[in-house]
Amino acid sequence: MAEIISSNKTIAKNTLFLYARMLFNLVVSLYTSRVILQVLGVEDLGVFQVVAGIITIFTFFNSGLAGATSRFLAFEIGQGNKARLQRTFSSAVNAYILFSFLVLILGETIGLWFVLNKLVIPEGRKAAALIIYQCSIVMTVITLLQVPYNASIIANEKMKVFAYIGILDTLLKLLVTFLLYVIAADHLITYGFLLVVSSLVIFSCYAIYCHSNFQECKFCFKWDKEILKPLLVFSGWDVFGNFGFAVKTQGQNVLLNMFFGVVVNAACGFANTIYGAVMGFANNFMMSVRPGITKAYSIGNYTRMQQLITDSAKYSFCLMLFLSIPFLFEGDFILKVWLKNPPPYTAVLCQLQLITLLFANVFFPIRFGIVATGKNKYISMLDGFIFLVYLPITYLILKWGGTPYSPFLFMIALEIIKSNYYTKLLKANWADFKLFEFYRKGVFPCIIVSGITLLSCFAISQLFAEGGWMRLLSVSCTALGVIAFLILFYFWRHEERTFVFNLIKSKLSIN
């Protein structure tokens, strides 16, 4: 029991650090996004969004290898094998060096041809687009080489450091925004160069900290087949799924560019900014929970693993629901305050992205459970198949007169099917997983909370004739109050409520 309480405290502490980082990053990124739109303009921003996204198609292996690196490092930490831990880190770095060269080659051949011949670029901006593309290649390589260091920090659960460097990253992007006003040159090109410098600084911070504080981060340029082979085999199952995701994400941007131009790309970019901000809060929580799931599995504590999967699904969903509601009810007003003149379709694209994320979020911990067991090939095959099917059907939808938001509606339907199938995959690969208990204690409470919260917020919104600060504040406060009440009296057990109330009383009596 004491061990579980200590583990929960670590998760809570790490989550608080990450949320502090995320809140700061959110405030600054909302400001910088507004300034970037004003400085670059809608067309140049759309050019940046679609061109910079092309190179990410060639990093489809990254997510799988990053997840494998985190999983193997956390597993070895749980086992206490320091020598094997160091070999695992070096093997991961070697793998990323190899894949960085692969991305460089693909980017300068296939990717460059696509930018030159297929993208719809406004007249007179092709030269700037090519420079931005080269900057994107450099930033992508830097980001890839940084992954093993990020994975090491996460596996060691040093979220305070992760938070501090994340704040520095945000401050550098804020500095980049200010420098755009000062430097008298093409703003789009200047923006690309400054982002490259910012990426180099952040990479250096991660590398220096890890080499100074973690014994396993002593890089050795040696091909350790005993470690590298299972690492690549494990991540190799994710390649198909991640390739499908990369094709789906960037292919969607290209299709929107081909049918509607760079203005819709800019709108999609802002919708992705909101999506990323809300997703970031959930990811920070999941990032704190994920090592615990892996370590619980590595030592055979399956009861703890089930509890972490179920509880993290509920609480992360509640957090995302609260963050999403202001945009679902007052999206147009928020965007006008934020951007003054948002591109067309920004509000509806933002709302559809958030709805997709709400459905997917409940089942994210299931994915972590599958990865912890090492049986991730079927989930990757499912992801890859759905994402690859998505693109040609989306093309047909747009070809037959679909609107810019039609692909997002289609994605919601696919996400519901895919997410529910994850639970069956986990049950098939982990016999001790209690499927009915997950739906009863995890999914069903999320449905109840979302239904009551949305109805309450809708009722409050009808008291106001038009959108504005008062309606936004009223809806947000209603969401916070309803969700907090339901967590306290519906999610928590009697002993959990008693513990929290006694803790509050003790703190008040001391003061």
Helices, by number, come to 16
Mean pLDDT: 82
Q: What shape does the CA trace take?
A: globular
Low-confidence stretches: none
Binned, the helix content reads over 70%
Structural class: mainly alpha
- Name the helix and strand elements from N-terminus to C-terminus, one letter apiece: HHHHHHHHHHHHHHHH
Taken as a percent bin, the fraction of beta residues is: under 5%
Q: How many beta-strand segments? A: 0
Largest sheet: none
Compute the separation of the termini in Å. 29 Å
Rg over CA atoms, rounded to whole Å, is 23 Å
Main location: membrane
InterPro entries: Poly_Biosynth_Transport
Protein name: Polysaccharide biosynthesis protein
Transmembrane segments: 16-36, 48-74, 95-116, 128-149, 161-183, 189-209, 230-247, 259-282, 315-339, 345-366, 378-398, 404-422, 443-465, 471-492
Give an account of the 3D structure.
This protein is an all-alpha fold. It has a domain at 32-223. The protein has helices spanning 2-54, 62-79, 82-117, 126-155, 159-182, 187-213, 225-260, 262-298, 302-339, 346-361, 364-373, 377-399, 406-429, 435-461, 469-491, 494-510. α7 packs antiparallel against α8, α8 (262-298) packs antiparallel against α9 and α12 packs antiparallel against α13.
